[in-house]
Please model this.
Amino acid sequence: MRSYHLIAPAKINLYLEIIGMRSDNYHELVMIMQSIDLADHLEIRPSGTEEIRVYCNHPEVPLTKDNLAYQAVRLIQAEFPQIAANYGGVDIIIDKRIPVAAGLAGGSGNAAAVLVGLNLMWELGLTQPELQVLGAKLGSDVPFSLTGGTAIATGRGEKLDPIPDLTNLYVVLAKYNNISIATPWAYRSYRQEYGHTYPTDIDSFPTHSQRVHSGPLVQGIVAQDGVKIGKLLHNDLEKVVFPEYPEVAQLKQIMSNLGGLGTMMSGSGPTVFTLCSSLEEAETLKEQLLIRVDDPNLAAWTARLSASGIHLAT
Ligand code: C5P
Model:
């Protein structure tokens, strides 16, 4: 049995709107998700024992049941007990390049890579839609991590409608290493503050997401119009994260003042990104940002928007 080397790209949210509360206690969302070429690398191989062993070069990544990649192996073992018993344990080696707890779906991408890797290694024969159903059991962002590219995500975030891929744009990403934000906290705070504005009629949810499907941001994406896209970036979670973490609000302001096409927080944060029309522009903005904010806790990256979800390393 051979081992597999997989690439798991990060995502940013070009758009995140909270529509209301679902009966399963999750929020109904409309998002526009976008892969970027900042990616974790994973190797999956037989462990030669009955154990699932996770190794990672980042000290903050949990190595057992709190790790979504570990949970992905457990899920496949539960779904295919006979095949799993034949093959035995698995080693997962994660080369972590995506910042952790950053709103970039790094953990979800690792879980998606394990699903793809085990499907190949154990010859499960699962189709992409079947992998997505399994992925949704692990987390709302896992189905998108599997396919990647540019997509409208609705429901909890697991229902995907692909739209034309954006690849000719770049981003600067910045994050304070000493700030991490728990996603459940962000959604809970939003509900506490804005729950009274949610529609009570859950049958009206599709009408809300339809507005985005035919709205100006999707039109901008179809036209590959970076200027229009940059002006229409949106994230409802900024409304609860910024008052609680003023440094993140200030970071957005500074990045926005430095230029680019538009600046927004990704997911539940705390990563903030600026969309740029070229790699040179992104690199220059990154350098200017690190000079402007002279804080050793601030880390910054550049990346290109990407059409790829989980794929094998070549
Ligand atoms: O699906 P995932 O496990 O990534 O979600 C993490 C948490 O974020 C959930 O437990 C929930 O508190 C919140 N969430 C939500 N509505 C969504 C997605 C996530 O309330 N659509």
Q: What stands out?
A: The chain has two domains: 4-164, 170-306. The first strand starts at residue 4 and ends at 21. The pocket of cytidine-5'-monophosphate is lined by residues 26-27, 29, 139-141, 156-157, 183-184, 187 (CB under 6 Å). The mean pLDDT is 96.
